[in-house]
Write a structure and sequence with these properties.
Elements: H1 8-13, E1 22-26, E2 31-32, E3 39-43, H2 46-54, H3 58-66, E4 70-71, H4 81-90, H5 99-110, H6 127-132, H7 140-151, H8 155-162, H9 180-194, E5 202-206, H10 212-219, E6 223-228, H11 231-243, E7 250-254, E8 265-271, H12 282-292, E9 293-306, H13 317-322, H14 332-342, E10 345-351, H15 353-369, H16 371-378, H17 380-398, E11 402-410
Parallel strand pairs: 1-3, 5-6, 5-8, 6-7, 8-9
Antiparallel strand pairs: 1-2, 3-4, 9-11, 10-11
Helix pairs in contact: 2-3, 9-10, 12-14, 15-17, 16-17
GO molecular function: methyltransferase activity
InterPro entries: CFA/CMAS, CMAS, SAM-dependent_MTases_sf
Protein name: Class I SAM-dependent methyltransferase
Length: 430
């Protein structure tokens, strides 16, 4: 007897309890769930089914969402956070179908023909494909390509959600009611305070972004060099520096951190750049930083981390293809292990996980507020992509799936030993 050909609603019902607060309607006329369900999803075409069948993970769902193949009246493109929360709550009501049911789902899909739909046009090739094209992970060429992909999008687009500070890293909030701009400048000043820099000192900023640190430091009389691999960021940052009349104190260069000729800096900061370095390259990276500091100089390393060392280093398929190609994260313990081994002394470690969730909440609000402008600038797919990425990141920080740490480190001075910094933390609370 031939097996029953399952429709889309029946495939969904094979994975979720019948009383789950979810309603699904599909292009084939099938539906499941009640009208008063908490979440309503519409599967608009067969491409969505094939995307998820090929990649039953975040990559398949992302492809379908970016193409508009899956929709929901509860879903706000600039800030789909609430839908992510609802999907997470539904996980408790998901179950694994029997092998026979899975086989029937497979045969039902393939009975319509074997299709591998093209991914969205904004998706990057796989790691294997990039390597075959000579773009090797964490080489100078590879880093330049991946950084350019992420950051050379549109300065004006980033300005829509980052706001006037143009600071694309975790802010620091005194309270949840703080404005994003205030919290971002709290963070910039916290970094400078932790580094114990004074007027006339020299700072190196690795992965400087659009220049907010350069302007903030120069206004305090600190000489600062920022480096980035993004041409768009260099132009924006140097224009900003000129407008502020700070050219005698600050500059931003299109330069790989491995090619910086200067050394003897009083301080170095790296804010949100380590995600691009690659775990195997941490020793070489921190050794480079150690050599560029004077004895007694300090490094402030600020990076997203895994919650523990049991989690894998590489990002998932969605992040690798759409957000941070070749991005890798490690646990705070693994990072501190490397920092110590290259010769630094770690003075302080601080987890700002909750602050990043608040930062992302504000970025999503800004994107939603400027949604039409965003779509006009970069197109519907890329605007949806950034809304989804930021909302998903916020959710993961809230759930403690990922964290973000600041490591304050000092290069030991062989002549003065350990008496090179105050006995107690000297930076004010922000």
């Amino acid at each position: 007897m031939a097996k029953h050909r399952m429709n889309v609603a029946e495939m969904v019902e094979a994975f979720i309890d019948p009383d789950a607060p979810l309603q699904v309607t599909a292009f084939d006329g099938s539906h499941c769930g009640n009208d008063d369900a908490q979440l309503h999803l519409e599967v608009r075409n067969s491409r969505a089914v094939y995307y998820i069948f090929e990649n039953p993970n975040d990559l398949g769902l992302a492809r379908a969402y970016l193409q508009g193949d899956i929709a929901s009246p509860e879903l706000t493109p600039g800030d789909p956070y609430e839908v992510f929360k609802q999907l997470q709550e539904l996980q408790a009501q998901f179950h694994k179908p029997t092998a026979a049911t899975l086989a029937n789902i497979t045969s039902s899909i393939l009975s319509h023909g074997f299709h591998v739909p093209k991914p969205p046009e904004i998706e990057l090739p796989s790691v294997a494909k990039r390597i075959s094209e000579g773009i090797l992970p964490h080489t100078k060429k590879g880093d330049a390509a991946t950084v350019s992909y992420h950051y050379d999008l549109s300065n004006e687009f980033y300005n829509l959600f980052l706001g006037p500070s143009m600071t694309y890293t975790c802010a620091c909030f005194d309270s949840e009611d703080d404005s994003l701009e205030k919290a971002e400048y709290n963070k910039l000043n916290l970094v400078l305070d932790k580094l114990n820099l004074k007027s006339g000192d020299y700072l190196l900023d690795i992965g400087c972004g659009w220049g907010s640190m350069e302007v903030t430091a120069a206004k305090r009389g600190i000489h600062v060099i920022g480096v980035t691999l993004s041409e768009e960021q260099v132009q924006w940052a140097n224009d900003w520096i000129r407008k502020e009349g700070l050219e005698d104190l600050a500059e931003v260069r299109l330069e790989d951190y491995r090619d910086i000729p200067e050394s003897g800096f009083d301080g170095i900061c790296s804010l949100g750049m380590m995600e691009h370095v690659g775990h195997k390259h941490y020793p070489a990276y921190f050794k480079e930083m150690l050599e560029k500091l004077r004895p007694g100089g300090m490094l402030l390393n600020h990076q997203i981390t895994r919650t523990n060392s049991h989690q894998g280093k590489r990002a998932g398929g969605f992040i690798d293809r759409y957000i941070f190609p070749d991005g890798e994260l490690a646990s705070p313990g693994e990072i501190e292990y490397v920092i110590n081994n290259v010769g630094f002394e770690v003075i302080n470690q601080e987890n700002l996980r909750q602050h990043y969730a608040l930062t992302l909440m504000n970025w999503n609000k800004n994107l939603q507020r400027n949604w039409k402008k965003a779509v006009d600038m970069v197109g519907e797919q890329k605007a949806r992509l950034w809304g989804m990425y930021m909302a998903g990141s916020r959710f993961n920080f809230e759930m403690n799936t990922i964290q973000i740490h600041q490591f304050l480190c000092i290069k030991p001075d062989p002549e003065t030993g350990t008496t090179t910094y105050p006995l107690r933390p000297w930076w004010p609370r922000h």
